[in-house]
Amino acid sequence: MNARDAELLRHKAFIGGEWIEAAQGGSFDVIDPADDSVVARVADCSAKDAEAAIVAAQSAFLGWRTTTAKERSRLLRRWFDLIMQHKDELGDLLAREQGKPLAEARAEIIYGASFVEWFAEEARRVYGDLVSAPAQGGEILVLKQPVGVAAAITPWNFPNAMITRKIAPALAAGCAAIVKPAAETPLSALALGVLAQEAGLPEGVLNILPTTRAAEVGLVLTSHPLVRKVSFTGSTAVGRTIMRQCAETIKKLSLELGGDAPFIVFDDADLDAAVAGAVASKYRNSGQTCVCANRFYVQAGVYDAFAAKLTVAVGALKVGAAFEPGAQQGPLISPKAVAKVEDLVRDAIGKGAKVRLGGGRHARGGNFFEPTVLTDVPPEARLLGEEIFGPVAALVRFETEAEVIALANASEYGLAAYFYARDLGRVFRVARAIEAGMVGVNQGGISTVEAPFGGVKQSGLGREGSRYGIEEYLEIKAVHIGGL
């Protein structure tokens, strides 16, 4: 670890512009999932720290909301510049705590920084309206104002980008923010705090609470009356709990929850492109993404050819720890995650699925799982209805367009979907018919700052990124003016 890496590696909470120990003492280990070594030991915050962060954020908000959009834009731009200056160090730190290959970790830093850059610009593009009043001598002014203190509860799979995607629009809108990062990956959050402080962000505008007491700290953030906005990325089960907890104080809420993305290959698809898109979507971050393909539906006429090509492509992936040259598949995040994927694969095989590739724990041991391809997966297999969160492609054969649309939509989730087809009429029909917040057509990547990110059904509420993302942190006020 070089000097700059060490400078970005923080062990304390960040509250009110100060780096402090947890109020009740105590700390926890951050573990490298590739070898179970301890990367760092970090302060373990409690409800008391959450309350202190809320007080600090509310105090800071009173001043921050009065700054000009131009000034907020300038500070966010400075934060973006610092992130980009230190993207390699941030990527190194992320790879150590999360386990993804170094190239992928550094790509996440650039992706995450794009949200800070985007919302630095959007800060100056929050527009209201002037509406004609129904009677003479009046006008109606529509204002957009920051909602207040915003809390972001973020996951471990993208510990940099999930923070910037939430915090950048909050700060751009004029909100003060509190981040509760996942216990598995707090170091990336704290490093972002170092650079935000260096960029000149006022004290208390950004607060960061590392903790293993997710339920305790989360309850404070979701129930405290001074927190006016909560943004959460994680499982649908936890999302339901957060929604219930926020109901008492009627908070503005964004939820980016579970996914069960269908990946459809029609018989007129470019199979080589479909295979490349499948690998990009399914095996990115070892399958630990909310938008990765979860169910592969392949039309009967190309099923065997697609399965063969996919097996070859997946078999060429190099499994390795983050810093091993050429590594493309890292470990899963924890032994619990490995056990879950193993159980889902065992269930599918027991019900008749065939193993074309992989199928079990990797020979490296630890948290590594083999990149896996299963064919002839029966409809009753659990992994067709549960989020796998591992490097397993489950292939199902279908006959008609109507059949596969029904299969794709037969899920409580509706986050992402993908399909490959050349017929233009089919492209529009299927894109409209699929129940998902995001659809990739002839491409396996759909995450970009320019487009709104979010789902329908039980995959969540609200949108992140794009010009719509800042609206989640704004309230609309109508001002009726008479006597003119």
TrEMBL record:
Residues 19-479 form the Aldehyde dehydrogenase domain. Keywords: Oxidoreductase, Transferase. InterPro entries: Ald_DH/histidinol_DH, Ald_DH_C, Ald_DH_CS_CYS, Ald_DH_N, Aldehyde_DH_dom, Aldehyde_DH_Superfamily, Succ_semiAld_DH. Gene3D superfamilies: Aldehyde Dehydrogenase, Chain A, domain 1 (3.40.605.10), Aldehyde Dehydrogenase, Chain A, domain 2 (3.40.309.10). SUPFAM superfamilies: ALDH-like (SSF53720). Its EC number is 1.2.1.-. One of its GO terms (molecular function) is transferase activity. It holds the Pfam family Aldedh. Coiled coil: none annotated. Belongs to the aldehyde dehydrogenase family. NCBIfam families: SSADH. This is NAD-dependent succinate-semialdehyde dehydrogenase. The lineage of its organism: Bacteria, Pseudomonadati, Pseudomonadota, Alphaproteobacteria, Hyphomicrobiales.
